[in-house]
Design brief:
Length: 184
């Protein structure tokens, strides 16, 4: 799992006009939601936040928010709002997580190699691009690699065949076919 640290400060301004001025100063408003606790309004340096979010785009990542009051929050990106005309950050929502509790994540599958069945006219068919797994957030892998080199015509790899790190359990159907090589 990717980890990032982003510096932030408590937001003191609310409402349309003050938040618009905040954006004019190069800052982006954000909110951290935590299970049952009151949401925390924050402000981020837009350039820094944009760059950090760009680095983790489309991937699972735990972000540690370093708040100017000395506290830290471990969060996941919940929603990013952008201005559709200017393509700039408008608002960011985060969800606080407990690093000691298991949670479910969708992990991408990465296929490497060329199936030996292709040499005999077989067609490699990728059926799934991700798996759902459960583990503590920092134990979740960035991706799961499947080597298709040994697959002949008629062979397949199911979700149960995918190698997962210790402490990570498969939630997806174990019989689900991820990749197969079919006859021409």
């Amino acid at each position: 799992m990717i980890t990032k640290e982003i510096a932030t400060s408590i937001r003191e301004v609310f409402g349309k006009g003050p938040v618009r001025r905040l954006r004019g100063e190069g800052k982006t408003p954000g909110v951290v939601y935590s299970g049952g606790d009151e949401a925390i309004a924050l402000e981020f340096e837009t350039k820094t936040l944009f760059q950090e979010l760009l680095d983790i785009q489309g991937r699972n990542a735990v972000i540690t928010l370093k708040i100017d009051d000395g506290s830290e929050k471990n969060v996941l990106v919940k929603e990013i709002q952008t201005d559709p005309l200017k393509d700039t950050l408008f608002h960011a929502d985060f969800l606080e997580i407990d690093l000691q509790k298991s949670v479910q994540f969708k992990v991408p599958l990465v296929y490497v190699g060329k199936a030996k069945g292709e040499d005999f006219g077989g067609i490699t068919q990728i059926e799934k691009t991700s798996l759902v797994v459960e583990a503590k957030p920092l134990d979740i892998p960035d991706d799961c690699v499947i080597n298709v080199t040994d697959l002949g015509i008629g062979d397949k790899v199911t979700a149960a065949d995918v190698s997962l790190p210790d402490g990570v359990s498969l939630i997806s159907n174990s019989e689900m076919v991820c990749v197969s090589v079919s006859a021409p």
